[in-house]
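Below is the data:
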Amino acid sequence: MSIINHGIDLVECGRIEQMLSKHDERFLDRVFTAAEQAYCVGPKLQIERLSGRFAVKEAVLKLLGTGLRDGLSWTDIETKNDPAGKPLVALSGQCAVIAKELGIDRISVSITHTKDLAVASVIALGGEDGN
C-alpha cells in the first residue's frame, strides 16, 4: 500500500457555530449525513465534533484535488467511527468515483480539536491489491 496524497484542514469552531445558529437544520442536512448528525448533535461537544467532521470534509476535498464542484456533495464524504471510536472516512457519489480514478483504496484520518479550533488530516492510500 502506498500514499497517494494528503489533505489537511483547520476550522474555527466559531464559524461552524455561526452557520448552525444562522441556518440550523438546513445547514446540518446540507453538510452532514444523518449518522454524523446523530453522533454530533446533543452531546456537550456538539460544535467541536461538527467542526472536526467539517474539517475532514474540507481535507478530503483537498486530497481529491477538486474543491466542492462538479456534482460533489458535502454528504458524499462521511466520517464514521469504528467500535473503538477511531474515525473512518466513507466516500459515496461523485467523491467515490474520483477516488477510484485516483487509485485510492482507503483514506486514513486523524481529527483533533479544542473549544476554538478543529483540525483534520487525511491520507489517501492505494495499491491494496499489491500493485
